[in-house]
Design goal:
The chain has 191 residues and is of the alpha/beta class. The protein has 3 helices and 19 strands. The chain is globular and about 50 Å long.
Amino acid sequence: MACLFLICFCELDYTLSWKAEAQRLCWTYNQLPPDQPERRREILQKLLGDCSDLTFIEPAFHCDYGFNIHTYGLTVINYNCVILDTSPVHIGAGAFIAPGVCLACAGHSVDAAQRAEGISTSAPITLEENVWIGANAVVCGGVTIGKGSVIGAGSVVTHDIPAGVVAAGVPCRPIRPVTDRDRIPPEQLAF
């Protein structure tokens, strides 16, 4: 369930400093040459709340705070990913996140007057184990994607997706289960 929040002025300095630190770390990370994996690892360990040693993020990567992002095993995040982590984002082991994906915990009021007052929403996102999010998909706050599911490219995920399905569309909906027919035959393996 989404929670509404307003940032009171007494909390604004903390919020801005946390965001500024995340922006600084993301900027530094995104400027590093590809032959500095140790330095990249150091930055991810500082930026993310929990960061598996098997977390790999291609630049450019952007997030709001970083400390709300938690990875739990092999996590591959491809180019140009944005994670608006105003709430916790849990990424299970074996997750593959394609280029251009946005995980957006944050939202704003549909009502213009509330939006002008700065009223926002935020809800956590959970990607269970072995989830694959296709290119340019958007996952909205409050969503859990079940173990082993695949989200099609360009989808907008606004509701929970069960385990073990291929889901796609705007809004994203389960299309079919993942089955043994989805296995790539050995003669077709690319590497």
